[in-house]
Amino acid sequence: MTDADFLGPTREFYDTVAEDYAEHFRDVLAARPLERALLASFAEQVGAGAVADLGCGPGEVTGYLARLGVDVFGVDLSARMVALARRTQPGVRFEQGTLTEVGRPDGSLAGVLAWYSLIHLPDEQLPFALAEFHRLLAPGGWLLIGFQTGDRPLRVAEPFGHPVALDFRRRTPERVAEAVTAAGLTVRATVRRARDETLGETAPQAFLLARRPGPGGPENPSPA
């Protein structure tokens, strides 16, 4: 699959809507206590090791982890999203990149966060992203994924009045768990919740926590 097949349109979509998106999802975690709890648990698990927030958007969740004391940096495909993140989350590192090619050494991370970012990957690209997450994680490192559930994609057209459109790929928790397991990671927990119409949600939400087998993440040894 070429850049023009999915990376180009995804980058254009988020470059176009970046300012409106960032404003709309400002303080996105304020009304989501379950998500805050999951992120806090993830922060405790990764300890002092480095964490990558892959597909970080404007950096709201990256900044939340940083305030919890996590050594976190963000990566996003959209240059405009990265610029917004750098402006609104000073002191946190942000860079442009993709989910399938992160410029970090093998086994260098205690954690990877994919918070509503795998939804932009076609099915055939999902194994490549998960293989990259496995490569990045040290033995014992943690992966946390957030996503909308379902078995059909959602076509988002003209968001905030902008002339762009993009498919958001919804997957069942079972499908995501199968792909994560195939990538060599061990699923430790799956959390589901019903959609919240008061938050404008159109689908149930799910969260999957997985671990690369091994004794412990960098600078965070733990018993097997």
Give structural notes.
With 224 residues, the protein is of the alpha/beta class. The protein has helices at 7-24, 33-46, 60-67, 79-88, 126-136, 173-182, and strands at 50-54, 71-76, 93-96, 109-115, 137-148, 154-157, 165-168, 186-193, 205-211, 216-217, 220-221. The strands form three sheets. The chain has a seven-stranded mixed sheet, with helices on both faces. Strands 6-7 form a two-stranded antiparallel sheet. A hairpin with a 2-residue loop joins strand 10 (216-217) and strand 11 (220-221). The longest helix has 18 residues, at 7-24. The relative contact order is 0.17. Residues 216-224 have low confidence and may be disordered.
Radius of gyration: 16 Å
**Number of strand segments:** 11
Tell me roughly what share of residues is in helical segments: 25-40%
The poorly predicted ranges are 216-224
- Give the overall average pLDDT: 93
Largest sheet: 7 strands, mixed
* Largest sheet, spatial ordering of strands: 3-2-1-4-5-9-8
Q: What is the CA-CA span between the terminal residues?
A: 39 Å
Produce the secondary structure layout.
Blueprint: H1 7-24, H2 33-46, E1 50-54, H3 60-67, E2 71-76, H4 79-88, E3 93-96, E4 109-115, H5 126-136, E5 137-148, E6 154-157, E7 165-168, H6 173-182, E8 186-193, E9 205-211, E10 216-217, E11 220-221
Parallel strand pairs: 1-2, 1-4, 2-3, 4-5
Antiparallel strand pairs: 5-9, 6-7, 8-9, 10-11
